[in-house]
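Sequence, please.
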């Protein structure tokens, strides 16, 4: 059995998926399998992947499902991963040639207090997205990486599969296709550590049709998904400023849904009252921008 699963949720990305495949062919270690979750594509993704499976150069598993959104793709991946470790490589990104080898080297010896490791994102020119991890940092959480150590930019997680399965799946809301993936990582942060590694695990490219460049539109189209994560953050944050910021966003999301009962889920009526004027302003701003 392989040690690492690289999973890729994809939707109508036949035009870019080959970048992931070609980079996997170049890996210096083949101790991995590629799990593709086709989230309802209507292009020729299936035929493209079948051709790669027929080539039989790397181990590939392909699963097709009705469109559920990125988080639904993650749910399906976690249900089907059979390896000890896993990482997500999006359909518009790809891995440096030695990424798998570096991942496998750095997960060795992790004790039960670690959920996995976290590495760097870089762009096509080799520049780190945001900043690297502080030298000498060996044990942290994703929350502390950004909140205490002031690291910036997206980072790539490699997690133990059995730990991920201890937590609830991302919820699916009718008519919506997005729940922020950070919700699961926040739950893991409460119980486990990560080992930071100043080595690039992924080369990223933010395409025009990707989530990263369309976040305000995602926010407006998927308010229940965002409200779900805001309620969790209000209940679990130890920072008054963070709780207030998330209350502002919760008010805005509730306005998009026209469902005031979402505000009651925070169980913080005075906080919601104080945040309401700012939530109204945020809602207006998003409507204006989208």
């Amino acid at each position: 059995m392989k040690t690492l699963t690289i999973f890729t949720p994809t939707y109508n990305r036949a035009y870019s998926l080959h970048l992931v495949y070609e980079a996997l062919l170049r890996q210096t270690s083949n101790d991995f399998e590629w799990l593709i979750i086709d989230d309802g594509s209507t292009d020729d993704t299936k035929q493209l992947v079948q051709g790669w499976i027929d080539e039989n150069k790397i181990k590939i598993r392909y699963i097709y499902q009705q469109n559920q959104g990125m988080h639904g793709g993650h749910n399906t991946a976690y249900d089907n991963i059979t390896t000890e470790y896993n990482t997500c490589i999006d359909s518009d990104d790809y891995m440096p040639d030695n990424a798998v080898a570096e991942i496998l080297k750095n997960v060795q010896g992790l004790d039960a207090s670690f959920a996995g490791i976290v590495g760097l994102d870089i762009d096509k020119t080799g520049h780190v997205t945001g900043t690297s991890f502080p030298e000498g940092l060996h044990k942290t959480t994703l929350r502390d990486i950004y909140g205490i150590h002031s690291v910036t930019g997206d980072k790539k997680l490699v997690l133990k599969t059995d730990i991920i399965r201890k937590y609830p799946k991302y919820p699916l809301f009718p008519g919506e296709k997005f729940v922020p993936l950070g919700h699961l990582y926040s739950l893991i942060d409460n119980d486990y550590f990560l080992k930071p590694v100043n080595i690039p695990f992924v080369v990223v490219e933010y395409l025009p049709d990707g989530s990263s460049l369309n976040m305000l539109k995602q926010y407006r189209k998927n308010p229940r998904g965002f409200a779900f994560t805001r309620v969790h953050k209000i209940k679990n944050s130890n920072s008054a400023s963070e709780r207030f910021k998330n209350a502002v966003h919760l008010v805005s999301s509730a306005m998009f849904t026209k469902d005031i009962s979402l505000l009651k889920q925070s169980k913080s009526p005075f906080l919601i009252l104080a945040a309401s004027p700012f939530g109204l302003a945020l809602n207006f701003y998003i409507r204006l921008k989208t």
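Residues 214-289 form one domain.
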